[in-house]
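Before surveying the methods themselves, we first show a specimen of the format, giving the amino acid sequence and backbone structure tokens:

:::
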Amino acid sequence: MTNPASKPLFAPGNEAEWARINEEEERQEAEFAASLSMAERVAYGQKLSQQAVSLIVASVNAGHAPKRALWS
């Protein structure tokens, strides 16, 4: 493992490190997607959609989104 950086990752000048991190995440997501069958993809998509609706409902209930967000 490398030594800890002397400045935070969000500091300017860390663009190369962020590019490396983003490439690794994209590679992992592509491998995950390639490993799923069509039925698994549908089930995963449904799960994500249900989570999105739950997030919208929670936002409306907390007063952070208008009630019409549920019907748009």
